[in-house]
Amino acid sequence: MSLFNEDNTIEQLVITTLKHNGWTYIDKDHLKRELSDVMVESMVKAALIRLNPEIAEEPSRADEVIYKFRTLINSVQSHNLVTQNEVFKKWIFDENSYPFGKDGRMVSIKFFGTMTREELAKNEYVVTNQWSYPCEEGGKRLDIVLLVNGFPVAIGELKTPVRAAISWVDGASDILNYEKSIPQMFVTNVFNFATEGKCFRYGSINSPIGQWGPWHTSEHKVEGGLVDVKISLEDMITPEKIMDIFQFFTIFATDKKYRKCKIICRYQQYEGANAIVQRVIAGYPKKGLIWHFQGSGKSLLMVFAAQKLRMIPELKNPTVVIVDDRIDLETQITATFNASDIPNMASAGSKEELISFFKGDMRKILITTIFKFGEVNGVLNPRDNIILMVDEAHRTQEGNLGEKMRTALPNAFFFGLTGTPINRIDRNTFNTFGAEEDRSGYLSKYSFSDSIRDKATLPLNFEPVPVDLHVDQETLDREFDILTEGLTEDQKAQLSTRVNMQAIFYNPLRIKKVCEHIVKHYQDKVEPNGYKAQIVCYDRECCIRYKEELDKLLPEEASTVVIDTNNDKEDRFKKFRRERDEEGKVLDHFRDPHDPLKFVIVTAKLLTGFDAPILQVMYLDKPMKDHTLLQAICRTNRTYDEGKTFGLIVDYTGIFDNVARALDFDESSMKKIITNIQEVKKQLPALLKKCLSYFMGVDRTVTGWEGLMAAQECLPTNKEKDLFGADYRVLNKAWNSLSPDSFLTAYSLDYQWLSKVYESVKPVDGTGKLIWSTLGPKTIELVHRNVTVGTVHDEEDVLSLDADMIDKFINKTGGSERATKKIEINLVAKILEHNSNPRFVKLGEKLEELRAKHEQGLLTSMEFLKMLLELAKEAAQAEKEIVPEEELDKGKAALTELFNGVKNRATPIIVERIVKDIDDIVRVVRFDGWQNTTAGKQEVKKALRSVVWIKYKIKDIEVFDKAYKYIEQYY
Question: Are 754 and 692 in contact (CB under 8 A)?
């Protein structure tokens, strides 16, 4: 719920803009609904009657339909929200037949008018605000709710910009919490949005905050004020676009762990896919080139475009062909389509299958490879509603494949998609896909700088290595000239690539040195943050040699080789010969943060079409340039979690000594695509100085709460705290990207001190996440390695104070201000120490509420101190009731030993998993002193039974009793 009243600027801006967009504003009190209703059922019924003659004949039929939807909504739980949301969409567009025809005949029922302006105009579009659900007292209040024909399709949360740290992130967090507490409100949801008046962001249900995106227009791509938010609202939240996104730009995917997720388009995917659709509907020109930067969602763009093209009636059941640039069809595009539950899919992995598909005039979505067209001659199908979308369009230059496709499908539409810009010299690509009508050369463009600004991808850094590990090009050239004296230039070129490069890259001493450097670099800089690595070697033989050397330095399971093992007469690569499914499982292990596989060693495979967001660093030891190089290094640019702020290339070849030569594109911005990490070093002293400038005159050698109090006095209000927090975040990112590095030693003490101050002043209720986020693992380790600041040793004396003794305590401490600070610092330390415990989360919320009232002058200093003391007493009591971690660790160890004894071939349980499940559920149901109550014992036994007997089917009474005794002892 926002803090706005009726005159609120942002709330009124949103409502006014949406009214201008075609939404009708109705006050919540004038909507005909009970507070416990999700649908406005009178609107739903009116729409059903308006859109369906069969229901208009017999209006009671609408009640039957509404009852079915009400049951769906009321049966939802937070864990199956996505599934129920998918069922809702299916009931609207697919499974919408009811026995309302003559003699009970099944007829399709319309819930919305779609597709055409005339049909869309038949819908009722309503915006309302401050919507309560499921009751006024104790319920939730939603700032903005959008209804189409009585179904709530979008929910918006607005935040008061009373302090810099409060942002759209807090609004999005509120919505994610609502999805758990009132999932019923989201069963009919299309998307949600949040803003604080500076930035506008939207996301689908269950989307982590990192996946919420902006909505820009092609003409306006900046943000930072009300005008920018208004432009986003005007462009996105129109009746037409909401219905378009709902029907065509929403997919439900299933991951390899059989979990459902909902995906909606980003604005560039919406723009690009609709540009394709509009061109096909217009009928001319019959081609177009789309450049959307690597990692920004080209695969999904194709899914959305294919889905919409197939569903538009005027295209008369078209054929859509996705043409992949890989030989084996095992790419990100294939995986995306297969996971997206799109109907009528087919694939052609051979020449015969391709010919059969087109000669049979199939009307489906076909996935094939570009190389299959090189194997056919003549016309395959002359139909004019065949649409091809070709991935990595620059590959059409190979063997004039573009011309072959044109011959096979002479009247088809050809759209080329690429993640790398096309140079004007690549005439084949422009001839095949470029339309003269597109003045920039592109039908749709989403550049490197666009994707970085929108956080669709991450910036790239490269790190040079010690010179002795570089390929010594000068010496190589000199030795080569001596060796090849008397040979022609062509003979020299052949010999160079075949012999001398191998001589360098196969050198055992160099391989040993490079592998040692890789392992140390990874263990120091990458592994502490939980990310993984790719090693790119010169050729297949090099991959094997690197693996052999790495196995001397790391456990064997820490790395694997993924290569093409064809043409292997000597069985040199036999160990790494895998079927597709087997290779897929290996890559899933790599994507799993808990799996011991840390490195994949490659030479050609996985350099395109491989998506693993956990991959942060590429150790590059292979000469490459232009398209190939750009595609490869962008494997590291996928977003993953809050801590991953860049992709890193460790360059052993010296490729990036000249970035402009390595990435030689007409597009000037490509020169800035990768930055030397040394540039960050140059910036760090200034970043540190800026943060220290907030604390002029503070003695940083003073430790304990006195030192923290002196620092906090320099940040008297939230305004100063947030300014400091924002500057510290920049410093923190720079530090984590460089650490560990001897260069940082000189700045380490100041950085530690600033980190402790940052932790001590950040909101303890989890708000303001845009500025006040969790410190990275490296910073946490650095802070914890030193003396903890913020503990108060005479805590028991303080907590035993009653009202009459407060004055004495104040005098002893040196004044009420110092007394208050002492209590507050200690309380913050306690809350942060137990920030995953629900009782301490609640205490954090209470403390922030108290601080806000004090800063606004609603509490006197003495009232603030007394209330702080009450919170401190509550925290101390809560802390006493927490079972020490070491006791729980003993319990887990005892349970592990017990179930290791149970494990055998007949009972192939994963011991770690069962112990974790028991630990998780017992922690939830236990309470202080549960062993002494009948109810406590029953609850714990019930919880244990649900894991041991029901989930893992271990029906051994003796094992159950032993497990219970361990829990009774240690929990």
Answer: yes
619-677 pLDDT tens trace? 999 888 877 888 888 899 999 988 899 999 999 888 777 776 777 776 766 667 788 88
Query: Is residue 899 within a helix (H) or strand (E), and if so which, with residue range?
Result: helix 885-902
Residue 651 makes CB contacts below 8 A (sequence gap 6+) with: 462, 463, 464, 465, 620
Q: Dig out the tokens for 728 from the structure.
A: 């510290």
Decide the pairing of beta strands 140-148 and 151-158.
antiparallel
896, 854, 892, 902: which is closest to 970 by C-alpha? 892
Burial environment of residue 688 by CB neighbours within 10 A (0 to 12, 13 to 18, 19 or more): buried
pLDDT digits 0-9 by tens, 8-64: 789 999 999 999 999 999 999 999 999 999 999 999 999 999 999 999 999 999 999
Q: What is the pLDDT of residues 744-770, one digit of tens each?
A: 999 999 999 999 899 888 887 777 777
Q: By C-alpha distance, which of 821, 811, 787 is closest to 711? A: 821
- Can you say how many angstroms the Cα of residue 515 is from the centroid of all Cα atoms in its chain? 31
618/175 Cα distance (integer angstroms): 37
Tell the residue number behind the tokens 């567009």, with chain if given.
Answer: 93
What distance lies between CA 567 and its chain's CA centroid?
39
- DSSP annotation of 135 reads -
Least Cα distance to 959 among 912, 901, 914, 905 occurs for: 901
Residues 333 and 298: their CA atoms lie apart, in Å, by 8
Helix H or strand E encompassing 450: helix 448-453
Residue type, 712: Q
Instruction: Transcribe 793-819 into DSSP letters.
Output: TTHHHHHT--GGGHHHHHHHHTSHHHH
With a CB cutoff of 8 Å and minimum separation 6, the contacts of 210 are 455, 639, 641, 642
Tell me if 417 sits within 8 A of 292, measured CB to CB. yes
Closest-CA residue to 617 (of 593, 638, 596): 638
Q: Exposed/middle/buried for 804, CB within 10 Å: 0-12, 13-18, 19+?
A: exposed
How far CA 675 is from CA of 454, 498, 655, 679, in Å, comes to 19, 32, 13, 7
DSSP run (H or E) holding 967: helix 957-970
Q: Each residue of 707-724: pLDDT tens digit?
A: 888 898 899 888 898 899
Q: Is the pLDDT of residue 841 over 70?
A: yes
Of the pLDDT bands very low, low, confident and very high (cuts 50, 70, 90), residue 494 is low
Residue 342, pLDDT score:
80
Average pLDDT score over the chain: 84
Q: What is the reported pLDDT for 239?
A: 97
Banded pLDDT at 879 (limits 50, 70, 90):
confident
Enumerate residues 6+ apart whose C-beta is below 8 A from 199: 167, 168, 214, 223, 224, 228, 229
pLDDT digits (tens, 9 = 90+) for 772-806: 776 777 666 666 554 333 333 334 444 444 444 44
Q: How far apart are CA 207 and CA 188, in angstroms?
A: 16
pTM value is 0.80
Q: Average the pLDDT over 267-289 and give the result.
A: 96
Torsion over CA: 199, 204, 207, 211 (sign): negative
Residue with tokens 């009852």: 67
- Edge-to-edge, what's the strand order for the sheet holding 287-292? 345-348, 365-369, 319-324, 386-391, 413-418, 287-292, 444-446
Question: Where would I find the H helices in 570-625?
Answer: 580-591
Looking up tokens 């590990």 gives: 469
Q: What are residue 264's DSSP bridge partners?
A: 250
The radius of gyration computed from the CA coordinates of the chain, to the nearest angstrom, equals 32
Residue type, 250: T
Helices 41-51 and 60-74: angle between axes, nearest 10 degrees: 130
Structure tokens at 264: 């909606």
